[in-house]
Amino acid sequence: MSIIEKSACELIEMLGNREISSREVTAAFCDRIEAVDSRVRAFLHYDRDQALRRADEIDHRRSAGQEVGLLAGVPVAIKDILCARGEPTTCGSKMLEHFKAPYDAHVIERLDRAGAVRLGRVNMDEFAMGSSCENSAYQKTANPWDLRRVPGGSSGGSAACVAALEAPLSIGTDTGGSIRQPASLCGIVGLKPTYGRVSRFGLVAYASSLDQIGPMARSVVDAALLLEAIAGHDPRDSTSLPHPVPPYRQSCQQPLPKLRVGVVTDYFGEGLDEEVAVAVKKAIEVYRSLGATIVDVRLPTSAHAIPTYYVVATAEASSNLARYDGVHYGHRAKEYRDLVDMYKRSRGEGFGHEVKRRIMLGTLALSAGRRDAFYNKALQVRRLLRGDYDAAFQQCDVVLGPTSPTAAFKLGEKSDDPLAMYLSDIYTVATNLAGLPGLSLPCGFTKSGLPIGLQLQGPAMAEETLLRAGYMYEQATDWHRQTAPLAGTS
User: Fold this and answer.
1) Tally of domains in the chain
2) The pLDDT value given to residue 368
3) Catalytic residues, which ones?
């Protein structure tokens, strides 16, 4: 098994035993990026020299007997929405094409403290608005399982680079499914933590009450490791929760007796692809064979989750993106008549079609005479949705269902149909609206060889339970050990 095929935990063990150096590990992944990324198109910014200098620094500290941190020289890819001092932070948008962050995000600080080697910044839907990674202003990322198909979004680059063995770990963000849906489509593990579990300081905001940063990896244990490195309280984020960080990597491997799995009957209806339904139902039987109690649960308000999400999220986006006016920073039009014309032209040129669409939707929802009918009503539905989850978790420990209604669709297939694209997140947006954690992990393949994802959701701060339940399933199956066809390409 080559270096790039090993898990992050295996690499940490080898590094700790001095079987390999961080430079060798980093060089192997850099070589991989240079060999295949021209086809995958996951990376927007990649600096081999900088990564190798960081690896040498970690090797030197290890040789000197100094503390090297939890990640100990393991490479990590970063979604291009987190600020890192002196590095481009484009959010996949022309609006921020020349912007370099003046400070580090909390997660970047945590990764550096943990000894991670940052490989570079990966592609995304513009300002995290999309489900296919086709809305980036710079390039369309491809799915390593089929380069003619999408990797999902908005964290498409984060998912694709892990699936293509260009990085063992990556950081994504999830506002309505943007970690879990691409993880499902690319056949990897993705975890959206509880709202507030990971600090949003330094995260460029899309919808502030929904955004959350989380890990993406090829196994549950690796995802647990990365979550352990980035989670924790940060006083600079007023929504950051002051809870201690458990040893996720260790606890996720502990047995989980008397697990109660709630199957969401509302999810198995119209719009769910038959192959996806079959794979998820087989996963239910795996849990049953492992001794779990299977119960049916209802989330009736989830039928309204998509319209609720696209009112709340776009309203917050309209407010958050108002700052991009061509004055303080961001794209400024070269030609304009006056100040108002400069605002109009700068925003018109800097934002892509999907971002403009969501800004207009959000502005409409907040406008005079419509706020009560749209935004305030959506907040009421959001509260009802959380009540559904509270009731479900009286009956079960985790809620189970599909992550995405279909496997990866073809590039361009849904580009001209926004509603069809929005429905790609029909099973994931409710988790964000309720502020709960959600985990996606591989549970099978379609007849054409495309990955299918299983989603587990839990109560607030129940990441340990989700990870343990995910690890249970992972140990009983081998879906997570499969590698994309691209993985055999040198």
Assistant:
1) 2
2) 85
3) 79, 154, 178
